[in-house]
Amino acid sequence: MTPSVREFYKDKSILITGATGFVGKVLVEKLLRDCSDLKVIYILLRQKKGVPGEERLKELCSNKVFELLQKKNPSIFSKLKFISGDILEEELGLSNDDKQELQRNCQIIFHSAACVRFDQKLKDAVHMNTTGTLRVLNLAETMDNLEAFVHLSTAYCRCDLDELDERLYPAVHKPRKIMDIVEWMDDETLKHIEPKIIESEPNTYSYTKAITEDLVAEYGSKFPIAIGRPSIVTSAWKEPFPGWVDNLNGPTGLLIGSGKGVIRTMHCEPSYTADAIPVDVVANGCILIAYATALDKAKEAQFFNITLSDVQKMTWKEVIETGEKWVNTYPFLIALWYPGGTIKSYWFTHQLAVIFFHILPAYICDGLLFLLGKKTFMVNVQKRIGHGLGVLQYYTTKQWCFKNTRFLSLMNRVSEEERELFYIDVSKLDTEEYLKDYVLGARHFVCKEDPSSLPRARKLHTIRYVVDVITKLLLVGLFCYLLYSYSDLFTSLVSYVDSSLRAILS
């Protein structure tokens, strides 16, 4: 008889890499809460910024994402076991005791550790995303009782394709050859040839994810493997809290930047569909993928596109307009200016807007701060924003179709009760309500602005609106005054240009 999801996870020993990441935190929380009969979750952690791994585990358990669990079932955290290790080290830097324990006991691996920076140097991205994955695969190969290995990739691993099916697409380059190249080649030469190497993809993140899929698939005949491909991962839909998010990546940074009046233009095709998936749906998807992979025992890697695809359709224009509505309803307490601006279909008009609404105001602001003897910052902020928008805008000016039939079919393998518990059906998602929660979540969890500050934030928002209107009126008035005062000069200039052109043409 086929076990239910919770029956399957009972007494299971699970290894999770990347547990401190956005998806990793939600995955750990969900497993502890709704698969509480599991035996142990091994958390692979390294020392970071001088903080030992044990302390990082304590910090993880005290994270806001675990707040409900801390209140309802604090003893469940005893099922988390710290494993000192680093995917950048040979053999993961594991001690002999830890390695032997994992080899004896581990039954499921969720590998989500990755460098998600799109501008990372190729060598660093390969070391983290490809070589690091190889080390985890080599460990998995020595495990006595491994039932499922789930590798988290991305739906944007083959950006050169307009349609991505749930299957392996052979990488442009052999992953082992690329790993070899970054080891022996000097940094200067590698930097020079990097654009040519990754030309099939927009950045090193997508490129390394693409070649890593090829590497993972090599092990498909050795133990049950699945590769999950989420699209853009956004705030939680339902769990652990509606709107929960803890980073500034992707759309969250855009939401906060525009909500604070810093971002006022964006290169985007408004009619294209936005494919973004809530982080709790990704976590539930991982749990169901491991369940199905272990039961099926397929002899080759299985692929699952964790995407909206045709289940939910919302254009970038609709997303941005709805987000703008909720940002004005639930404004940020601390902001530079009143939110405004528009999305631009054409690169040239976007660049003009960048000059007039991003760069010039930044220099004016820093100039005033300099005269007042204060520390300047806006120019540097705008440089970082410009770089971030440049990365994001690749994905807002193209459109892809992600086939996700296999992923959606996971719902048919579980009971109605567990379908609700491990929900992946986004057809029931109310986009208006979701985006409202997203704005509130970004405000509360990322910007640390308590909901009790909303009345004050709304007053300040009104003041910013009045200042914005007055400033626009003054600028329009100044322009009209200059046009009127120097109309003769403008007329003479136009006549001169006209006569010069006629002389050249004749």
TrEMBL record:
<feature type="domain" description="Thioester reductase (TE)">
    <location>
        <begin position="16"/>
        <end position="284"/>
    </location>
</feature>
<keyword id="KW-1133">Transmembrane helix</keyword>
<keyword id="KW-0521">NADP</keyword>
<dbReference type="GO" id="GO:0005777">
    <property type="term" value="C:peroxisome"/>
</dbReference>
<dbReference type="GO" id="GO:0035336">
    <property type="term" value="P:long-chain fatty-acyl-CoA metabolic process"/>
</dbReference>
<keyword id="KW-0812">Transmembrane</keyword>
<comment type="function">
    <text>Catalyzes the reduction of fatty acyl-CoA to fatty alcohols.</text>
</comment>
<keyword id="KW-0443">Lipid metabolism</keyword>
<dbReference type="GO" id="GO:0016020">
    <property type="term" value="C:membrane"/>
</dbReference>
<keyword id="KW-0444">Lipid biosynthesis</keyword>
<dbReference type="Pfam" id="PF03015">
    <property type="entry name" value="Sterile"/>
</dbReference>
<dbReference type="GO" id="GO:0102965">
    <property type="term" value="F:alcohol-forming long-chain fatty acyl-CoA reductase activity"/>
</dbReference>
<dbReference type="GO" id="GO:0080019">
    <property type="term" value="F:alcohol-forming very long-chain fatty acyl-CoA reductase activity"/>
</dbReference>
<keyword id="KW-0472">Membrane</keyword>
<dbReference type="Pfam" id="PF07993">
    <property type="entry name" value="NAD_binding_4"/>
</dbReference>
<comment type="similarity">
    <text>Belongs to the fatty acyl-CoA reductase family.</text>
</comment>
<feature type="domain" description="Fatty acyl-CoA reductase C-terminal">
    <location>
        <begin position="357"/>
        <end position="449"/>
    </location>
</feature>
<feature type="transmembrane region" description="Helical">
    <location>
        <begin position="352"/>
        <end position="373"/>
    </location>
</feature>
<dbReference type="InterPro" id="IPR013120">
    <property type="entry name" value="FAR_NAD-bd"/>
</dbReference>
<feature type="transmembrane region" description="Helical">
    <location>
        <begin position="465"/>
        <end position="484"/>
    </location>
</feature>
<keyword id="KW-0560">Oxidoreductase</keyword>
<protein>
    <recommendedName>
        <fullName>Fatty acyl-CoA reductase</fullName>
        <ecNumber>1.2.1.84</ecNumber>
    </recommendedName>
</protein>
<dbReference type="InterPro" id="IPR033640">
    <property type="entry name" value="FAR_C"/>
</dbReference>
<dbReference type="InterPro" id="IPR026055">
    <property type="entry name" value="FAR"/>
</dbReference>
<dbReference type="InterPro" id="IPR036291">
    <property type="entry name" value="NAD(P)-bd_dom_sf"/>
</dbReference>
